[in-house]
Amino acid sequence: MTKIRTILLDAAILFAVSTVFVIAADFAFSGLKRKIPKDDPVVTAIGQGEWKPVEEILEKAQSDPTTRVEVTNRTDEHGRTSLMRAAYANFSDTEKLAETDDVRRHMVESLLAHGSAINATDKDGWNALMWASWSGLPKVADTLLGTGADVAAKDKLGNTALMIAARRGHADIVSKLLAKGADKNARNNAGLSAIDEAVRGMKEHPPKFYKDLQDSYLKSISALR
Amino acid sequence: MPNPVTNYFSEFKVLKSVSKDFWLTNAIQMFDGLAYFSMITVLSLYLTVNCGFNDVDSGAWVGIYTLYITAFVFAVGSICDVIGIKKSYYIGIGLLAVARLGLGIGPDILKGEALQWSTRAMLIVLSLGTAFMSPVTMTSLRRFTSKSVRATGFNVYYLLMNIGAIIASAVVIEVSRKVFGDVRGNLIIFDFGFLMSLGALACAALIREDNYAEESEREAGRGEAKRPIMIFMEVWKESAFQKLLLFLVLTIGVRLVFTHQFLVMPKYYTRVLTTDFELGLANSINPFIIVVGLILLIPVINRYSTVRLIIIGMAVSASSLVFMAVPLEWILAIPGISNPQQAYLFIIVAQIFVFAVGELIFSPRFTEYIASVSPPDKVSSYMALSALPTFISKPINGFVSGILISRFCYDGIRPKIETGNVSYQQSPEFMWLIYLGLAVLSPIAVIALRNFLTNKPAAESTTEAAAP
User: Fold this and answer.
1) Do B82 and A209 touch (CB under 8 A)?
2) What secondary structure, in 3-state letters, does A143-172 show?
3) Does B421 touch chain A (CB under 8 A)?
4) Which end of chain A is least crowded, N or C, by CB within 10 Å?
């Protein structure tokens, strides 16, 4: 019994020492951590594809205008809002991407209805439409375009949503952007237009490895001509 | 020339004579290994994706979890000598089962702060359970093997552990994430861990703990086990121990690369490649190379001196980070690599491969080194305390990794890399340059201090020289 008591005592001592050490480390790194905002439950729920808890948060915040702006337009350390996070996905599986597009469209609608700033930009100058254009989420892009997203917006390097979609070979989004009046002749800081970006993207994805993408690139190029 | 594969396995023939309790111990280890290796790979992702921890907190809590394991191993390391193997297994596996179930179902029934606090509590329970498993398994393996087959018994254990790691990564993680997706899949992995705990519990119930393979060890096992704090008080003033500590501190940089495998890599892989990247398959390459290397390489490299192998192995392991630290444009200039997806895949596979080769060379030599520098009567004390430097480095590494990930490898960095919005100083490659700097310091420092570290104090050398 004495032996067990000794072991338990040792465990308690070591647990206490470890905890003190963790607290000290946490304190030591607090300066570096300060700039990193607290976890955003809206962003977590977006990542999980669960919209109900977010609806609840937004509904709750609706009654108080200050909280509403805080909840819908809170930014992370990179200046991204929850709307931008909802417009971003990165899946190689096209089925999964299509499913995500369906779910995210409703999320985007709801966020916009609750006061998300549609043309807010992150630190690199990207708005939600640019995120959707990179991600290949046509339904999300459609919703954003239907609600007044700025198709002419440029990031710090002069890239537009059209250039980003063209480079990625998302022909459906390229068409939607052109239909909404995106300027196909605009050039970025490197002097490249959307069609140049599409050609560049196609070269980067040789048919040997990316057979499925070729059609999409060709469609984009033909739409941009 | 003898076939190394046949050679390696022919050694196992001697295990025909071991009791079923030895195999039950290995079965427990296999069940627990499948649960542990699948869980540890997705833990940082689980904390962020399923529980809403930001990158900094998730890194910190993975570090804290590993710190508590080390602390509890110190404390409960000798408990099975007091309460017996079966009770130790019941407690350890029971704690693991509760924690894995709690972590598996937590996100379904709790949200927000409540979920995060319950997750933190469960991680501490999980660490206590994990701490029970390693010492009790070692005691069981020793007890159920005679001296003549013990070394082979431990080789089988090590082999099965690595096979468990391969299956956990290539099958458990892959199937869970493929079938249930990148969010739900994480929870399924914890649920699977709970089921594995039940399997381990059933095996523990069948063990006959009184079945000593060496009768002479029955009484020896009843001796008073030393408390870790007492052991430390006894040896901390000894110069050999201080040198060992210095050596261990110097090698932390490269040994931390091991922890990157579960602290940094899962987020790195899924963020620079795709969210649904085959994380499990990538993580199964390392144990696969270790298993193949154990059979083919170890007999060859064992001819070289321990310190030399440690230095070479550390240098190889550290250099694996070079692939990740160079600017992406350099990798894109390699013929056949035309886009960032291919470039990152190349970087990842090359790093895993080179690191595994280095690990294979230096990792087993560590124990040998500790034994060789310890005074003969204090080998076990030195071994027990060899985890001290990592005790300090683990939480620090957890915090640092979280901060670095949130700055240089945040969720959504890939689009910015592709469009040229991320400079080298803001890129994941820069994060790896920092880690590379830390890792490279290890072999350099050991080479610089080699003579000091390997020279025994004059008094000890004289005593040894005088001995017959």
Assistant:
1) no
2) HHHHCCCCCCCCCCCCCCHHHHHHHHCCHH
3) yes
4) N
* Contact across the interface for A78 and B412, Cβ inside 8 Å: yes
B52, A44: Cβ pair inside 8 Å?
yes
Distance CA B15, CA A98 (A): 54
DSSP string over B417-440? HHTT---GGGSHHHHHHHHHHHHH
Give the separation between CA B374 and CA B357, rounded to whole angstroms: 27
**What residues contact B397, with CB distance under 8 A and at least 6 apart?**
B63, B256, B259, B263
CA A30, A33, A35, A37 torsion: positive or negative? negative
> Could B79 and A4 be called an inter-chain contact, meaning their C-beta atoms sit closer than 8 Å?
yes
Per-residue confidence band for B220, with pLDDT thresholds at 50, 70 and 90: low
CA separation for the pair B390, B56 (Å, rounded):
20
Residues of A (21-60) whose Cβ lies below 8 Å from B: 21-22, 25-26, 28-29, 32-33, 36-39, 41, 44, 47-49, 53
- Answer whether B416 touches A (CB < 8 Å): yes
Any residues with CB less than 8 A from the CB of B336 and at least 6 apart, and which? B342
pTM for the predicted model, two decimal places = 0.91
Q: Does A94 touch chain B (CB under 8 A)?
A: no
Lowest mean pLDDT among A203-207, B312-316, B363-367: B363-367
Q: Is the ipTM of this complex over 0.90?
A: yes
Angle separating helix axes B55-76 and B388-408, nearest 10 degrees: 170
User: Which residues of chain B are within 8 Å of residue A29 when distances are taken between CB atoms?
Assistant: 399-400, 403
Domain boundaries, chain B: 20-209+228-466
CB-based contact, B76 to chain A, within 8 Å: yes
Which chain A residue is nearest to residue B62, measuring alpha carbons?
A22
Q: What angle do CA B60, A81, B265 make, to 5 degrees?
A: 35
- For residue B461 the two structure tokens come to 């050398």
- Of B172, B174, B62, nearest in space to B124 by CA: B62
Chain B 205-264, residues with CB within 8 Å of chain A CB atoms:
225, 227-229
Residues 152-171 in A contacting B (C-alpha not used; CB under 8 Å): 155-157, 159, 164, 167-168
pLDDT higher than threshold 80 for residue A126? yes
Homologous superfamily (CATH) of B20-209+228-466 is: MFS general substrate transporter like domains (1.20.1250.20)
Taking the CB of residue B303, how many other CB atoms lie within 10 A of it? Answer: 7
H or E segment to which residue B356 belongs: helix B340-373
Could you read off the pLDDT of A53-101 as tens digits, one per residue? Answer: 778 877 877 777 666 667 778 888 899 999 999 999 999 999 999 999 9
Q: Which residue has the tokens 């280095």?
A: B358
Inter-chain touch A10–B274, beta carbons under 8 Å = no
Return d(Cα B311, Cα B260) in angstroms, integer. Answer: 20
